[in-house]
Write a structure and sequence with these properties.
Blueprint (H helix, E strand, L loop, with lengths): L9 H31 L4 H6 L2 H11 L2 H8 L2 H23 L4 H7 L1 H19 L7 H26 L6 H23 L10
Helix pairs in contact: 1-5, 1-7, 1-8, 1-9, 3-7, 5-7, 5-9, 8-9
Length: 201
């Protein structure tokens, strides 16, 4: 069902890897941060849910202008900047949770993650679908979604193991977020090898 030669093209292989690392960082953060706020900081489920509003709201607004950024500067600019923002947000949280920073500060540090995801995901989707023949668009879209689902599932499974014990939760969360940031930086470097324009098949 999936022609393997499709992955030989850089505008296809890189979005797949970016989708995976995005899911590890983004969904790993949502999973860990919700547990952290409730179990270690004593927030209610409702307050915990509201703490994600700034990240998601800022990302939703930025999504509206991301296509313009990609059209003007090419795909590698928003993809690279987006992944860098996400990595910076995760790395900042590693430091902040280590010093028991105020919850409002922690919430503000999730905003770069939301902004980075808004720059990254629409751009890699447009790049991927514009780089394959029309008849392969459904297949390419499905494989991208699969890579994201795989990344999210692995993040929950692996990071969940790191924070399984309450006494080592903070250190396990720090290791997990560091892994997520490192993956994002790795695919960010790879995305710099993309061409300056989004091709249209």
């Amino acid at each position: 069902m999936v022609p393997l030669q499709m992955f030989r093209a850089r505008p296809v292989a890189i979005p797949m890897s970016v989708g995976f690392s995005f899911a590890v960082g983004f969904y790993g953060l949502v999973f860990l941060f919700s547990l952290y706020l409730q179990e270690l900081r004593g927030l209610s489920p409702l307050t915990t849910g509201l703490s994600f509003v700034p990240m998601t709201a800022f990302g939703a607004v930025l999504t509206l202008i991301t296509p313009r950024i990609g059209a003007r500067f090419g795909p590698r600019v928003p993809i690279a900047i987006g992944q860098t923002l996400m990595a910076v947000g995760l790395a900042s949280l590693v430091v902040a949770i280590g010093v028991q920073a105020p919850v409002l500060l922690l919430v503000s540090l999730t905003i770069p993650v939301g902004a980075g995801s808004a720059l990254t995901i629409p751009t890699i989707t447009a790049l991927l679908l514009g780089s394959v023949p029309v008849e392969r668009a459904g297949t390419a879209s499905g494989v991208l979604n699969t890579s994201r689902q795989l990344g999210g599932a692995m993040a929950v499974a692996v990071f969940g193991a790191f924070v399984a014990q309450r006494e080592t939760f903070v250190s396990g969360m720090q290791v997990s977020l560091t892994v997520g940031a490192a993956l994002l930086l790795a695919t960010m470097v790879a995305s710099l090898r993309l061409g300056p324009k989004i091709a249209h098949a």
